[in-house]
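We emphasize that the prediction below concerns an isolated chain of 160 residues; any contacts that depend on oligomerization or on bound cofactors are therefore not represented. The input was used exactly as deposited, without trimming of termini.
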Amino acid sequence: MAKQKKHPQGNIAQNKKALHDYFIEQKFEAGLALAGWEVKSLRAGKAQLVDSYVLLKDGEAWLLGSHITPLTTASTHVIADPTRTRKLLLHKRELGKLFGAVQQKGYACVALSLYWKKHLIKCEIALAKGKKEYDKRDTEKVRDSDREIQRAIRSKGKED
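Result of the prediction step, given as a token string:
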């Protein structure tokens, strides 16, 4: 009987800046068309999504601005481009929804995270609406007040 391989699990990279800059309206799960050296680098956790975004053109979705650092040992015969555009694999229905929504003013399509799903690498993309500066400050105030409440609850439990 063949031995079962253990698949890697969990997040590879997250785009926390996108959560700060946008209101997330709807999330989609997309596959990624990758080269062999990119998969090896992702297994090592060498990916960044900080300035990445999704470009929709000609009925296809492309991931731009993501950075996958090539391993020195993985790709000796291939010239590795760490910031190349990568194709996102989505259903036609999902692409249609994204195309229609991005045409509206204020909406953008951003990459939120890269993660493993069994042996496949998936990219979570979102339809997002841009935040104004006062929205960002308001979000920080709410987060700080929640943190203060949690501290007060914890310290009250220790006094008893």
